[in-house]
Design brief:
The complex is a heterodimer.
Chain A: E1 4-7, E2 10-14, E3 19-25, E4 33-38, E5 45-50, E6 56-59, E7 62-67, E8 72-77, E9 86-92, H1 95-98, E10 103-104, E11 108-113
Parallel strand pairs in A: 2-11
Antiparallel strand pairs in A: 1-3, 3-8, 4-5, 4-9, 6-7, 7-8, 9-10, 9-11
Chain B: E1 5-7, E2 10-13, E3 19-24, E4 31-37, E5 44-50, E6 53-57, E7 64-68, E8 74-78, E9 87-94, E10 102-103, E11 107-111
Parallel strand pairs in B: 2-11
Antiparallel strand pairs in B: 1-3, 3-8, 4-5, 4-9, 5-6, 7-8, 9-10, 9-11
The chains are: A mainly beta, B mainly beta.
Chain lengths: 114, 112
């Protein structure tokens, strides 16, 4: 059973546009929600993360929006650049019960056209 | 500072063989986790070790085993390889005190 559901599977955006990737979860015990960026041949790299006690976190062009009641969170990439072309994974974990085991979504392949 | 180091980067094995993958965590990190990433999917949790003890196991058969050494490095062993074991195997480390894991670049295993 997929603990974290991610959409869309692929996304094509023009340079300068906004990329939006959505995730949903069921386990209300999750208390940490990171986003990872993965380039071909590389491991996932932590991009940005949020705890459920805040509704939004922004780091540069990347913003996480978190809706605790809906059990949804999303990644917004502002002013998307060709260098942002990669696969993005949302994830969730509960540090207390499982020492932070990560449950990943299936990934979104983002292509930014110049 | 060196990141998470995995070896080898690539290898090809034949069905039925055994494989050992190695991981060196970031210096000072005491927790190591292993994930399997099949092409086109998100990483799936295999094992977690903290202070040399197994702290979690994912839904993988007993052919998969792991251990953590006194220097906190780790090995993942897979016996009786199947074609379906072909994947990118990722190691991730954490200090055990904070959220978030740092991943290595992985070992690409191909079973033929």
């Amino acid at each position: 059973q997929q603990q974290v559901k991610q959409s869309p599977q692929s996304l094509i955006v023009q340079k300068g546009g906004i990329s939006i990737i959505n995730c949903a979860y069921e386990n209300t015990a999750f208390d940490y929600f990171p986003w990872y960026q993965q380039f071909p041949g590389k491991g996932p790299a932590l991009l940005i993360a949020i705890r459920p006690d805040v509704s939004e976190k922004k780091e540069g062009r990347f913003t996480i929006s978190f809706n605790k009641s809906a059990k949804q969170f999303s990644l917004h990439i502002m002013d998307s650049q060709p260098g942002d072309s990669a696969t993005y994974f949302c994830a969730a974990s509960n540090r207390g019960s499982t020492l932070g085991r990560l449950y990943f979504g299936r990934g979104t392949q983002l292509t930014v056209w110049p | 500072d060196a990141g998470v180091t995995q070896s080898p980067t690539h290898l090809i094995k034949t069905r039925g063989q055994h494989v050992t993958l190695r991981c060196s965590p970031i210096s000072g990190h005491k927790s190591v986790s292993w994930y399997q990433q099949v092409l086109g999917q998100g990483p799936q949790f295999i094992f977690q070790y903290y202070e040399k003890e197994e702290r979690g196991r994912g839904n993988f058969p007993d052919r998969f085993s792991a251990r953590q050494f006194p220097n906190y490095s780790s090995e993942l062993n897979v016996n009786a390889l199947l074609l379906g074991d072909s994947a990118l195997y990722l190691c991730a480390s954490n200090s055990g005190l904070i959220y978030g894991y740092t991943f290595g670049s992985g070992t690409r295993l191909t079973v033929v």
